[in-house]
Design the sequence.
């Protein structure tokens, strides 16, 4: 009996050591994430504030002209802000309904074989590089938009919205499908027992129960749409105009990407200021969505 007790004691000590070691590893990884976010925030604030202070916050955010290399330079980023907002909203309006319906189909309607095929296609979409999306959009979509709407060029805001709406689908589908699959079967069985149809059960029971996961997928899609550079750079036309659906435009991300390689001095500082505005913009969207989600839980 004593040898067994001794073995059990050693086993428990080893288990405790392993658990404490894993806790330390997880804590360290969590701290790395926090430090990375804090470092990025500090870098953007330190390097972005001076240019904003010199230009003026209101002039920087509300100015409608961008001439960073002209004889009389102007540094207004309102067209970039509005273009980013419009392209993100357009992509979400198109991509979220398609992504949510696809996730519902995969989680609740499709048979396992068909679901496996569609899941493979979704995973392939997620693995395609941004430059490939941009290349296909430039070769196929841009000429199609040009012919359809009889435009001088198809590299316009609408083309970017269509490309972004496809690019955000994998994240929305994957996260929403996982959330829907995690809904307890008892909820649906109770709904069926009360006489609800399958469609009613899906949209009145399963989807509300999975709303936190669906919201996470939407946030992921918004982040992808706002932060995308290469694909948008190839299909939007990149002209610093006030946004119009059928005209070339330039977003916050493409404004940075186009000039950062050769920018120096004050021009480089203004680009870092754009990065700071983009960072604050994304943080604000996340806070708003989290607040709305928490209110939904309380309601």
Sequence:
């Amino acid at each position: 009996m004593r040898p067994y007790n001794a073995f059990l004691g050693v086993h428990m000590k080893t288990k405790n050591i392993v658990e404490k070691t894993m806790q330390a590893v997880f804590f360290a990884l969590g701290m790395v994430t926090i430090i990375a976010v804090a470092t990025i925030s500090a870098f953007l604030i330190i390097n972005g504030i001076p240019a904003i202070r010199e230009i003026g916050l209101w002039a920087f955010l509300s100015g409608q002209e961008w001439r960073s290399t002209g004889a009389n330079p102007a540094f207004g980023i309102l067209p970039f802000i509005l273009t980013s907002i419009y392209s993100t909203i357009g992509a979400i309006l198109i991509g979220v309904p398609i992504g949510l319906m696809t996730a519902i189909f995969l989680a609740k309607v499709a048979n396992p074989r068909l679901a496996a095929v569609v899941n493979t296609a979704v995973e392939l979409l997620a693995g395609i590089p941004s430059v490939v999306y941009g290349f296909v959009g430039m070769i196929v979509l841009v000429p199609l938009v040009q012919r359809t709407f009889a435009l001088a060029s198809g590299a316009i805001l609408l083309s970017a919205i269509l490309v972004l709406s496809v690019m955000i689908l994998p994240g929305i589908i994957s996260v929403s499908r996982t959330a829907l699959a995690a809904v307890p079967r008892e909820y649906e069985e109770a709904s069926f027992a009360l006489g609800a149809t399958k469609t009613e059960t899906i949209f009145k029971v399963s989807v509300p129960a999975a709303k936190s996961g669906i919201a996470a997928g939407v946030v992921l899609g918004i982040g992808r749409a706002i932060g995308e550079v290469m694909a948008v750079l190839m299909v939007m036309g990149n002209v610093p105009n006030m946004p119009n659906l059928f005209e070339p435009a330039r977003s916050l991300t493409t404004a940075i990407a186009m000039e950062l390689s050769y920018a120096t001095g004050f021009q480089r500082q203004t680009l870092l200021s754009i990065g700071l505005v983009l960072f604050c913009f994304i943080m604000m969207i996340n806070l708003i969505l989290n607040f709305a989600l928490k209110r939904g839980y309380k309601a």
Observations:
- The mean pLDDT is 86.
- The chain has two domains: 4-55, 76-298.
